[in-house]
Specification:
Layout lengths: L8 H8 L30 E2 L2 E2 L9 H31 L1
Antiparallel strand pairs: 1-2
The protein binds zinc ion (ZN).
């Protein structure tokens, strides 16, 4: 091996300062507002392009299903509330 130029701990540290990974920025689902991968069906509610494609509740037990149905209904309510609020704010302005 060739003898490379002298490098110090400082040089090594400065080079490695760029090695950290950045957190991925994922888009939010239009229906449930959960983070999802782009161009893929939402794993939380099973929709893609505002159409329901997967039956998310099919594989769950009865207890889990009830809980999930409740969660999804709550999230939809929250989203409609948000839309109403934004519309009101716009009308004020
Ligand atoms: Zn979703």
């Amino acid at each position: 091996m060739t003898v490379r130029m002298r490098h110090t701990k400082s040089h090594t540290g400065r080079r490695r300062s760029h090695h950290s990974l950045k957190k991925a920025v994922l888009p939010l689902c239009a229906k449930c507002g959960e983070k999802k991968f782009p161009h893929r069906v939402c794993k939380n509610c099973g929709t893609y392009k505002k159409k329901s494609i997967l039956d998310v509740l099919k594989k769950l037990t009865k207890k889990e299903r009830k809980k999930k149905e409740k969660d999804l209904a709550e999230k939809e309510k929250e989203q409609t509330k948000g839309k109403e609020l934004s519309a009101e704010e716009l009308s004020k302005k």
